[in-house]
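Hi U.,

Before I forget, here's the chain from the pilot set. I'm dumping it here mostly so it's searchable later in email.
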Amino acid sequence: MGRRQRQRSRPAGATPGAAGRGGGGSAALPPSEHRDADGGVLVLRASLPPAARREYAATLAGGLHREDARQRAIEMLFERLAVSWTIQGLAIERQRELLARYRMASAGERDFVLRALREHLAEHFPEMEAP
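Structure:
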C-alpha cells in the first residue's frame, strides 16, 4: 500500500505517525508550555520514544568530557522535545530553526531552556536523570 493510500485510509482527525510513537499511549498527551519572565513560551512534547530515552542516557553518561556530554544531552533533549519556541513574539516551529536558535541563544535563554527541560522531565519522565 502506497503512502497516499495510507493517508486516505486514516480515520478523520488522526495525525500521521501518532500510533506507535511515544511509548505506551502517551502520544495523546498534549504538549506543555513553559513561560519565561520576558513572555517567551517554549512548548515541549509530552512523549519521548524509548530509543530516544536510551540515547539521552548514554549521551549524558557517555565517554565525552563531562561538560561536553551534558551540553550534548541538553541539546538532544531540546531537539527531541521542542515543538515551538516563541521569543519576543516570534514563533519558531521548524526543527532545524529551533535547533539553530537554541545554539545561538543567550546565556539567559539557555538557562530558561534548561529549567524548562528539568521541570518537564520531572513532570513527564521522572525516571530520567535531569541534565
